[in-house]
Structure formats: C-alpha cells, structure tokens
Q: What sequence folds into this?
C-alpha cells in the first residue's frame, strides 16, 4: 500500500531520470558535470576527477557518474543485490560549503524522497583507500535502514595532507533506484520508459548479459598469465614515467632554482631556461602515468578474483601499486606547484 | 545567582564517542568554574547530548569572582629603601603588587628583612572570564578520531562545529570557536523542525525549547523513551518480548534526537537460518532489536529505532523500507550459507594456505599446523593427568578451526568467525564434540564471556591463543605500553580465565614448554612476565582480590592459576585476624634483618638456609620458636599439599606467640658471630618454611 501511496503522490523515477535529476540538481548548485572516466576504476574516488583534483588549493565543484568495477563482487547476475559493475554518482566540493549536509538532503527531496515520511540518519563511517594513501572521515547515510550514500571529508590523499579539504558525496545509484521503485532485485529496476508506449526497459535488459559474461570472464576465463603480463607491462611503463619525472624535475631545489634564475640573468638567451623547464613540466604526462596505475589496479583486482594472487604476492604487488599511485599524486602536486597553475 | 548554558552544535558526532565527550565537557566546564572561583557553594550541574550537540548547564554560577588578597614578598628591604626613601626596586614591586609605595611593609625572615605587600585581586565579571576560557575547554575535548575542515586547518575536531550557545542567564557570552560565534539560538530536529533557529532566552528554557523543536536532549530520558517504545510495539505480539541488548540501546540512543520505534516482520522461511546469523544481521548490521517468544525462540520480527516520528503514511513507508533491506540481507546470508555448503570444511583446509595470518608468521595453514602440535601436547598432558579427552575429535576440530575464514558467510559477517565454522561442522555431520569446540574457540572474547563448555573446546581455545602469543613474542611483537595491536593481552586473559574455571590440569609452564624452536631466552622471560601480569590482572581486576593479597600470593608462585586463586581466597579470609597480622609484621621484620645481613656481608645469599644448630640456641624463646616451627612445618606442608590453604594459614598464625616472644627476648644481631649466624639461620628457616602459600611480608597492614 505504501508503494501505491508513493506512486500516486510522485511516480518513482526511472534509473535514467534519477541520474538526470541528480545531475541537474548539482549543476544548478554550481557543479561542473563531468563524464565518467573511461578507464576501469573500482570506485568513483579513483577517477582523476576526484583523486587528483582534491590535491592542491584550487577550488573544485564537480559531479559525475562513474561505473565502478569490482571483479570479486560479480555474481553472474544471480544475486539480486550485488553487481560486478555498479554506478556511483560522485560529487566533489572543495572547500565544502558550510551547509553541505543540508544541500545533500535537498538533493534527496529532488529525487522524490519526502524526508518527513522517512527515517534518515548520518552514521559514522570513515573511508580509507590505503593504496592511494587516502582517507577521510564521514558517514554512511541511512534511509529507512538502507545505506544510500557515503559522505566523506577527505583528509589525506597520496599520503599528503589536504588543505583545503574536499567534501565527497557518493550516491549508490542502483540501491537508490531500487528503493525508489520498491523492487527487490536490481535487475527489475526500470531503466527507462518509452514516453509513447510506456514500455519499460529494465536494468536487467541493459546489463544482465554483461554481469553474467564478465563474471564468467573474471572468475573463469581471464588468462592468468596474460593478466600478469599486462600488469607487468603497465607497471613498467608507469614506473618509467615516474622515474623520468624524478630525473627531470626532482632537482627543482631552492639552490638550483636560484642558479637557474642567475643563468637567466646572465645569459639572457632567446628562451629563458626557467620558462623552458616550466613548459617541460607542464607537458609531462602525469595523467598518463595515473591511467597506467588504474590499469594496474584493475588487473590486480582481476587476478585477485581469479584466485591467482598468493599471500606474499598480494602484499608485494599492493605495495608496488601503492608506491606508484602515491608517486603520481606527489608528481601531480609538484607539477601544479611548479607550473603555477591555479 | 546566574545559570550558565553552553552548547556546541555540530554535524553528526559518531555515536560511540558522544557519551565520553559529554562527561568530559561537563567536567571541564565545572572545573573551569571552580578554578576561576565562579562556582557557588550550592550548584546544580546538568549535561546533555544528542548526535548534533553537547551541552552543559550549571545552575549557581557567581556573577563575579570574589575579590582576593595575596601576600607577596619582594626585594630585600635594604635594596628597596635607601635611607628610608623608596628606591626603584620598591616602586617596581609596588606596581607589581598593585599597591601604593606607602602600603609596603617590612617583614623579618631568617634570611633578613624583606619588603612585603598585600595585593588585592579584584574579581572579574563572570561573563568576561567565561568568554576568555570556555572555548578552550571545548577545543581540548579528546576525540578518538579528529578532522580538519576549514582552510589553513586552524583547528581539529570530531566534526565541523556549526553553532554555539553560551548564555549566562539572559546574557550571551563572547565565546568563539572554529569561526563560530556564540549566540542564543540553537537548532531543532534536522527534518521535523528544519532550518529555523530555536531561540533560548534563558538556560532554564533549554530543555523545553528543544523538546518543542523535536529534540530530547536528556540522554537518560531518550533511552527511557526508547525502552518504553520497544515495550509498546512488542505488546502487539502475544507472549513476545524484545531481546535485551543494553549496548544496542546505547547506540540507538546516541543516533537519535527524537526517537520512535517501528515493528517490522520478515518471512518465516528465514528462520531456517541459524539464529546467530539472523541476530548478527539485525543487531550488528541494521541496529535492529530481535524479538523472541516466551521460549526464547526468535519471532520473524524486528524493531527498528527511528530518528523521527513519521506521520501515519510515513510509518508504513519506513516499516516497508526497513523490511526490504532486511530481506535483502537475509537473502544474501542464505545464498552464502547454501554456497558454502558446497565445499565441506575438510576441503577448505588447503585453502588456508592463501589466508595470511601474519606476514612474518605465514598463513592460517601454517598456524593450523602449529596449533595441532600444541593442542596434541596439551591433550597428552591432560590425559596423563587423568582427564578424559577425545583426542581424535580435538585434532579434527583444531585442523578445521580456521577453515571458516574461507567461507562467504564469514567474509560477509566477520564477527561470526568460529561460530559459522561450528555451525557448518554440525551441518556436515562432524559430531557435536568437533562442532562445539570450533563454535566456542573465540570465547571468552571479553572477560565476562563464558569459557567453552567442553574439554576439547577449552584445549583448542588455549592452544590457539597460546600459539599466537608465543609466535608474536618470538618475533618481538609483544605488547608495549598502551600498544597491543594483536590483542595479545586479551588472548592471555582468555587463557587465564579458561585455566581458572575449566579445571584443566594445566599450569602456565605447561603452555610455555612447547614453545617454538628458536625461541630465545629473553622471549621466554618476557612471556613469563607477561603471563604473571595477566594473572595479576585476573586476580585483582576481575576477581577483586586486594592488591597486597595478590602480590603476596604471586610472590609464592604464579604458575598454577586455580591454585593461585585458592591461595588468594584463603589469605583474604584470614588476613583480618590479629595473629596473621602479627605474623605478617614479624615476617617483614625477618626479611629486613636478612636483607641487611646480606648487604653488610654478614650473611651470604644461600647461607641463610643452613639449618640452625640446636646447640647454639641459648635463649628459651629461640629454642621454643625452633621446636614449634619444626613441629608445625610438616603439618602446614601436609595441609598445603591438600590445598587446604585456609587451615594451613591458621596453623601458621598459631606460631604468633612464639614469634612475638622471640623478637621480644632475643637479639639477632649480637656480637658473637656463631650465635648471630645461628639466629639468622633460624629466622630464615622459619621464613622459608611458611612462605610457600603467600609471602606475608607483601601484606599491607592497617
């Protein structure tokens, strides 16, 4: 009966309407809408739009949906609540506005949740991504006993203290859609409804095949040797880029900087050496190195789901990926600082 | 007399931290008032908290600090006054004391004459003082986890502070913290009251104004209302009651400002799942209360505590939503249960190779092998000492004990490790002995938990923990100070409790003997000291024996846990008697005499155990003591060997008149070396003969 009551007052949003509604909500509040990052990530946080943009002092207001892949969570499309790939809506606000919680609650009203008819709680839940040297404190937002959002104040990223910090809001879109539509299986979620015929296209229509086949691939078919080989190649390339970065720019110490300025004054050449260095720094593909990290991370998750990672390897590989990810974050911060990009 | 209200409003504080923070803020504010002499003799203190606020109200604050005088001593008179005229030093001192030069006095001290003054400190206005100091007390609160939120990171706090109320009667105090200036308005319930400010005219209006804004600030009242609401909702089910859970009550009390309760139900078919799983999902994951019938069996119902009073339609919506979530959780659990059954525990042993126990100590497979060796050694000892052990079942239980770490159900509900293994063992027909031992392996987790009921479960529990502790000590990972990352103290407490209560004929030394090869002497020493400390903790903090009784008992032996307990009980029973007190005093004296003799080189350590020669005993008192001691020693020894400690101690106490007489009549440290040595030997003999139950010299006598 509650379902009908709800439906008559405000028809439940389809999956795509939910997505559009939340995006317009945040766009109206000054967020830039970005597209999903097109490299596999395990969470919206790992997208450069979060992981790298939270670094440094520049203000950020950005929102994007991010399909997030977790190979080990695949269930061949048989479990009604679990997915290999789920969709997050990620909002990053740096610095977080004072009324960030109130704005967030308004966003729930915007998707048809009348708060006075529900129970909402902010329960402590701190977030941590050790591989990214990143953590924050915050809450899981509980709506009638369902965790619908992870709300985090980022404190550290890439092992570096953040100042200013960022507020991160991550909506679990499948959960929210299933809640709004009151269905027991994610696959029953109405993704879209034809405006003319009213015919519903479900989440299952769009994604079930992918869940099944990628579960088979992740758990059974992926070629372990080749995965290791891919991981090795991506890692080597990323490491080479990081090494090059350090060789070229690590020397940027105060004394040498002074020498360079001195050079410039004395030589007065056509291209001032400091400008050249700055330009070289600006062009350096730190973002390329980060994408290689993401590749490594995803391959590692695949190998893990495949049961191919032994105890000792696990610790060692995770430490290596962590070094790369943190190395990239540091390089990114140094690049921002060195090029004076605001 | 004015009343003070101080409230700090913030984004939701973690429930687990609120209680301690409320008490700490209250103590700090009261202490501040006391320190600043602003607390009236008669005063009342109230403290409040919700997820969004901490508040303190003090009724009976002085409007001003009382004036105070201070006696000050300044420079030497001769320096301050030259020819009776005040010099620069006198001027400076008068300024410092805040008095006229004419008011300076001359005081005479043993060190000479000095200038003195009586300084008058004018009391300050309470509002000014509180304005200066209140914010610092808030800022100083301890939080288990802090955060920064403002640019340039000016302060760390648990969550962003959003408003402050600081009132002295009707007056707003000038308090500022984290960029927030105190006012006389607060906030009501986030949803039901919304953004409108709630004005507090006077501290006395605080509770009422917030109650009107759908916030119950009094924690005890909120807790009471939740209990009443749980009772009320359960009443609709005949014969049912909600399962008492005070920790969960505390949690939901600190998650709500305006609580209500909704009763939900789930499909009866889920009752096929083990109760442990259902309760864990409800309690730990959803913070729901379980409902049981008169026989204690679960009903297919739950109670959820809400942070709102939804309207009629809302109640249905909220109930429906919570039921939906629980259904999904249960359906997951059932899915995992079924999937797990496809791989029996036996087939999971090899999978433990890929579950890390510790990076230096290897996998759970390695640990299982070590556990097997230790459990078998202990089982053999126990069996040799006449206790029946099903050694085959024990070995199977140990081998399978950790296999549930590879199950989906434990990956999902880690708090059910052990329990799930036990349930699976039963479902797979491995027999009750095996199932029970696996099921109870992690109990006791806290000191108040029960020990495993079966011998096999007890041995598994002891062996598993002992292996962990010894292995960690072996690689230098023993707990230090407040750091105990592997919870080894808790593990050792559990071992002590099992040994104390099980009747297993095992001593602590029995557990140390099979230490892994390559175990250093230092590590072994540390291990012994560590367990002695845990035994001390057990006797003193858990069993409540007086600390001197514990010291006395452990000084006489700390290897056998139940024996140490029996001795502590006996000593506690007799320590009040005058005779024993006198014995204790005499033994303390003996110990001092012997120590001094050693220090002076009169006696070498070891020599004092030489038997006293009867021929050299001159005085009747020393002869009597020797005879009585010789007579009593076998009696006491016999009682001791039968663990009749109380009777043994009473026998020792009967020595009192002889001891008293001895010290009354006989001088030990006489000139004659042979006599002196002989007397020293006598008292040493008495001491050693009667100190095997407890070292009485450790007793602290009133």
A:
């Amino acid at each position: 009966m509650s379902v009908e009551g709800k439906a008559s007052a405000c028809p439940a949003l389809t999956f795509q309407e939910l997505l559009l509604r939340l995006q317009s909500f945040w766009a109206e509040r000054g967020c830039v809408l970005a597209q999903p990052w097109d490299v596999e990530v395990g969470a919206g946080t790992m997208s450069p739009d979060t992981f790298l943009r939270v670094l440094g002092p520049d203000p950020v207001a950005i929102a994007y949906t991010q399909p997030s892949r977790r190979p080990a969570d695949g269930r061949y499309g048989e479990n009604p609540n679990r997915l290999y790939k789920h969709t997050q809506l990620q909002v990053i606000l740096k610095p977080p506005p004072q009324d960030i919680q109130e704005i967030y609650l308004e966003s729930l009203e915007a998707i048809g949740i009348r708060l006075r008819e529900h129970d909402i709680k902010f329960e402590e839940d701190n977030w941590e991504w050790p591989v990214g040297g990143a953590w924050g404190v915050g809450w899981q937002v509980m709506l009638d006993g369902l965790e619908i959002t992870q709300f985090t104040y980022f404190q550290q990223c890439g092992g570096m203290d953040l100042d200013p910090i960022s507020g991160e809001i991550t909506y679990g879109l499948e959960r929210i859609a299933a809640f709004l539509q009151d269905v027991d299986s994610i696959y029953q979620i109405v993704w879209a409804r034809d405006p003319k015929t009213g015919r519903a296209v479900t989440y299952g229509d769009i994604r079930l095949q992918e869940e099944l086949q990628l579960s088979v691939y992740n758990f059974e078919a992926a070629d372990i040797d080749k995965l290791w080989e891919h991981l090795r190649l991506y890692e080597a390339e990323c490491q080479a880029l990081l090494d090059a970065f350090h060789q070229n720019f690590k020397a940027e110490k105060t004394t040498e900087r002074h020498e360079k300025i001195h050079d410039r004054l004395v030589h007065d050449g056509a291209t001032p050496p400091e400008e050249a260095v700055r330009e070289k720094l600006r062009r350096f593909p730190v973002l390329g190195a980060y994408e290689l990290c993401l590749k490594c991370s995803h391959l590692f998750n695949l190998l893990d789901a495949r049961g191919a990672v032994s105890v000792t390897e696990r610790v060692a590989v995770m430490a290596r990926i962590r070094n790369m990810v943190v190395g990239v974050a540091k390089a990114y911060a140094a690049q921002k600082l060195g090029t004076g990009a605001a | 007399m004015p009343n003070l209200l101080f409230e700090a409003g913030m984004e939701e504080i973690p429930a687990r931290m609120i209680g301690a923070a409320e008490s700490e803020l209250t103590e700090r504010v009261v202490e501040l008032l006391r320190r600043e002499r602003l607390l009236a003799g008669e005063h009342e203190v109230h403290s409040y908290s919700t997820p969004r606020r901490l508040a303190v109200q003090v009724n009976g604050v002085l409007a001003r600090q009382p004036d105070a005088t201070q006696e000050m001593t300044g420079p030497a008179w001769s320096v301050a006054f030259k020819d009776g005229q005040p010099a620069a030093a006198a001027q400076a001192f008068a300024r410092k004391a805040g008095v006229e030069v004419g008011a300076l006095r001359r005081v005479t001290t043993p060190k000479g004459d000095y200038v003195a003054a009586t300084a008058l400190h004018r009391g300050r206005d309470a509002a000014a003082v509180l304005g200066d100091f209140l914010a610092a007390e808030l800022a100083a609160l301890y939080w288990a986890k802090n955060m920064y939120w403002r640019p340039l990171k000016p302060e760390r706090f648990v969550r962003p502070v959003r408003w402050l109320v600081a009132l002295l009667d009707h007056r707003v105090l000038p308090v500022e913290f984290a960029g927030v200036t105190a006012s006389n308005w607060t906030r009501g319930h986030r949803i039901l009251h919304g953004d409108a400010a709630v004005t507090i005219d006077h501290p006395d209006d605080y509770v009422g104004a917030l109650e009107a804004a759908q916030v119950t600030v009094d924690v005890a009242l909120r807790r009471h209302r939740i209990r009443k609401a749980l009772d009320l909702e359960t009443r609709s089910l005949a014969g049912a009651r909600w399962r008492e859970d005070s920790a969960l009550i505390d949690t939901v009390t600190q998650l709500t400002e305006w609580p209500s309760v909704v009763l939900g139900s789930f499909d009866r078919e889920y009752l096929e799942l083990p109760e442990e799983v259902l309760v864990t999902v409800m309690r730990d994951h959803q913070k729901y209360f379980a409902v049981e019938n008169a026989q204690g069996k679960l009903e297919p119902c739950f109670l959820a505590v809400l942070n709102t009073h939804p309207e009629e339609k809302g109640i249905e919506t909220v109930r429906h939503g919570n039921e939906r979530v629980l259904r999904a959780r249960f359906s997951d659990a059932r899915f995992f249960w079924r999937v797990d059954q496809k791989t029996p525990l036996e087939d999971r042993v090899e999978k433990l190779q890929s579950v890390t126990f510790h990076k230096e100590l290897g996998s759970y497979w390695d640990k299982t092998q070590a556990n097997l060796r230790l459990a078998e050694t202990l089982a053999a000892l126990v069996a040799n000492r006449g206790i029946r052990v099903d050694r085959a079942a024990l070995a199977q239980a140990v081998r399978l004990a950790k296999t549930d770490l590879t199950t989906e159900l434990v990956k999902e509900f880690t708090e059910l490790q052990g329990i799930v293994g036990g349930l699976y063992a039963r479902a797979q027909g491995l027999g009750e002995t095996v199932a029970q031992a696996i099921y109870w392996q992690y109990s006791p987790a806290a000191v108040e938990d029960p020990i495993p009921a079966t011998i096999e479960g007890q041995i598994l529990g002891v062996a598993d923990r002992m292996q962990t502790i010894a292995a960690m000590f072996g690689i230098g990972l023993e707990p230090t100070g407040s750091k105990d990352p592997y919870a080894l103290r808790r593990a050792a407490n559990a071992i002590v409790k099992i040994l104390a209560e099980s009747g297993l004929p095992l001593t602590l030394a029995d557990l140390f003997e099979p230490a892994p090869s390559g175990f250093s002497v230092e590590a072994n020493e540390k291990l012994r000291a560590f367990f002695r400390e845990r035994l001390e903790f057990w006797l003193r903090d858990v069993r409540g024996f007086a600390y001197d009784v514990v010291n006395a008992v452990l000084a006489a032996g700390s290897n056998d846990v139940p024996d140490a307990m029996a001795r502590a009980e006996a000593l506690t029973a007799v320590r009040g008697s005058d005779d024993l007190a006198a014995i204790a005093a005499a033994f303390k004296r003996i110990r001092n005499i012997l120590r001094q003799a050693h220090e002076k080189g009169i006696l070498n350590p070891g020599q004092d155990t030489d038997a006293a020669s009867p021929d050299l005993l001159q005085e009747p008192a020393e002869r009597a003591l020797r005879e009585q001691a010789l007579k009593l020693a076998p009696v006491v020894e016999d009682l001791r060997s039968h663990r009749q400690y109380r009777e043994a101690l009473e026998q020792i106490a009967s020595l009192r008149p002889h001891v008293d007489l001895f010290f009354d009549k006989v001088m030990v440290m006489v000139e004659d070396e042979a006599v002196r040595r002989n007397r020293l030997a006598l008292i040493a003999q008495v001491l050693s003969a009667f100190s095997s139950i407890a070292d009485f010299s450790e007793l602290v006598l009133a």
Notes: Chain A touches chain B through 48 residues (CB under 8 Å). Residues 192 and 201 of chain A are 5 Å apart (CA to CA). Residues 1-9 of chain A have pLDDT under 50 and may be disordered.
